[in-house]
Specification:
It contains five helices and five strands. It is an alpha+beta fold. The chain folds into two domains: about 70 residues, no CATH class; about 55 residues, no CATH class. The protein has a three-stranded antiparallel beta sheet, with no helix packed on it. The chain has a two-stranded antiparallel sheet with strand order 2-3. Strand 2 and strand 3 form a beta hairpin. It is globular. The chain starts with a helix and ends in a 7-residue tail after the last helix. Pfam families: MLTR_LBD.
Length: about 130
C-alpha cells in the first residue's frame, strides 16, 4: 500500500513504486474487504488514514466503495537494473486462513523471464545494465 500510494521524497526522481493503474484500484478494493473483515482494527485504520494523507489518488479510489480481491493478472514492476518486467501473477488463497500466496511466472525466453536471471547475475557481481 505504501509503495503504491506514497509520495516520494522531494528530489527522489521517481513516482511511487508502481504506476497508479488498475493495480492501485485493486489494492484499494482489497483493503476495503480487509477493513470490513476486521472492523475497528487500529493498524488498518492507521494505514487508510496514512494513504489518504499521502494523496496520489487513494482518497478518490477509497470513495468509490468498490469491494474486491485480485486473483490474477499481470504485474508491472519497474526495476533500475533490468528494466520493466511484466510477469503473469496468480493469487492463491489458503482456505480458512487470511493468507494469500502470490506467484509470478513468465513465458520462457521472454524478457520478463530473463529479468530474474539478470538480477541473479547482478547479485553475483556481473554487469547486467539494460
Amino acid at each position: 500500500m505504501r509503495a503504491v500510494f506514497a509520495t516520494p521524497p522531494s528530489g527522489a526522481g521517481r513516482a511511487s513504486l508502481f504506476p497508479f493503474t488498475a493495480d492501485g484500484a485493486a489494492l484499494v478494493a482489497d483493503l476495503r474487504l480487509t477493513r470490513a473483515a476486521y472492523p475497528g482494527e487500529k493498524e488498518i485504520e492507521d494505514l487508510v488514514e496514512e494513504a489518504r494523507r499521502a494523496g496520489a489518488g487513494f482518497g478518490e479510489l477509497w470513495a468509490t466503495a468498490t469491494l474486491g480481491t485480485r486473483l490474477g493478472g499481470t504485474k508491472r514492476v519497474p526495476h533500475p537494473l533490468v528494466g520493466e518486467l511484466v510477469p503473469d501473477s496468480d493469487v492463491l488463497k489458503v482456505p480458512d486462513h487470511d493468507m494469500r500466496i502470490m506467484t509470478f511466472t513468465a513465458e520462457p525466453g521472454t524478457p520478463d523471464a530473463e529479468g530474474p536471471d539478470r538480477l541473479r547475475a547482478a547479485a553475483e557481481g556481473a554487469d547486467v545494465s539494460v
